[in-house]
Amino acid sequence: MDLRRFEDSLRFASVTSLSTPPLFAALAPARHVLIAGAGGGFDIYAGLPLALALECEGKRVDLANLTFSELGWLAPERWAAPGLARIAPESEGSETYFPERTLARWLASEGHELDVYAIARAGVRPVRAAYRALHAELDALAARVRYAAAIAETERLREVAHAIGAYRERTPRQLWRTLPF
Q1: Do 63 and 95 contact (CB within 8 A), yes or no?
Q2: Long-range interactions of 19-26: CB distance < 8 A, separation 24+
Q3: How many helices (H) and strands (E) does the chain have?
Q4: pTM across the whole model
Q5: Order of strands across the sheet with 60-66?
Q6: What whole-number distance in Å separates Cα of residue 99 and Cα of residue 76?
Q7: What is the pLDDT of residues 68-86, one digit of tens each?
Q8: What is the separation of C-alpha 15 from the centre of its chain, rounded to a whole number of angstroms?
Q9: Helix, strand or coil for residue 53?
């Protein structure tokens, strides 16, 4: 094992333990956590164990998802901002496919007070605007993403992928760090 990898493993070991996984150690000082799915609806369900564990620790947790659901049926009062809807158990929508509402119903039936948001599928700018409307503090998180400036003016997914690829090609690789928080 080379010296650099050994030093990294020591740094990693100093922030983890068997009783506290690294992610929970990194989230320990947080008071409010957003867990977001990347699209399709059901990937947000994979974040439920984390969301419920954080809720048990007394943190405020919100769930958001880039949805494939048809949101046109929602009443105007459900829209928190353009492209951003707060989904409640009684939200209007399809009875056959609306995973965000199904999740909101289940959370309510189990006594959890987690908010569920659906972000309409749109271009990069509208999705970013929806996230900004959801939590102003996400701007601070976005500022830590090294390629945020490279994708700021993109519109289509292909443009985003190209901009990130170009950024990676011209940026020297950095050593792995435990967590970027």
Answers
A1: no
A2: 22/178, 22/179, 23/50, 23/179, 24/53, 25/179, 26/178, 26/179, 26/181
A3: 8, 5
A4: 0.65
A5: 32-37, 60-66, 115-119, 84-87, 79-81
A6: 20
A7: 889 999 999 999 889 999 9
A8: 23
A9: helix
